[in-house]
């Protein structure tokens, strides 16, 4: 099997080798564009976790307020 098939890491914006060589540029627009693209691609996978965390947060606040 090829080595590429076992590579599970996510390199956002480039590779580590290029960054260590100094071949990089920081642009807020490019960073935000890539963040929005990745969020849109994986939104439905994170939605259940976000709903669960929201519900847990609501429950903690409700219990704290009702106990006071």
What report would you give on this structure?
This protein has 68 residues and is mostly helical. The protein has one domain (3-67). It has 2 helices and no strands. The protein has helices at 16-21, 28-67. It is elongated, with a radius of gyration of 20 Å. The N and C termini lie far apart (61 Å). 0% of the residues are buried.
Task: Considering the chains and any ligands shown, give keywords for the structure.
68 residues; 68% helix
Task: Give the helices and strands, then pairings.
Layout: H1 16-21, H2 28-67
Number of strands: 0
Tell me, rounded to a whole number, the average pLDDT: 83
Return residue spans where pLDDT drops below 50 for at least 5 consecutive residues.
none
Structural class: mainly alpha
Which H/E pattern describes the elements? HH
Could you tell me the strand content as a percent range? under 5%
Separation of the first and last Cα atoms:
61 Å
Radius of gyration: 20 Å
Main sheet, how many strands, which sense, barrel?
A: none
> How much helicity do the residues have?
55-70%
The figure for the number of domains is 1
How many helices in DSSP terms?
2
């Amino acid at each position: 099997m090829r080595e590429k098939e076992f590579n599970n890491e996510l390199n956002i914006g480039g590779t580590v080798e290029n960054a260590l060589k100094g071949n990089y540029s920081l642009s807020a627009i490019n960073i935000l564009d890539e963040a929005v693209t990745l969020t849109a691609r994986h939104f439905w996978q994170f939605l259940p976790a976000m709903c669960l965390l929201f519900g847990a947060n609501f429950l903690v606040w409700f219990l704290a307020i009702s106990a006071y």
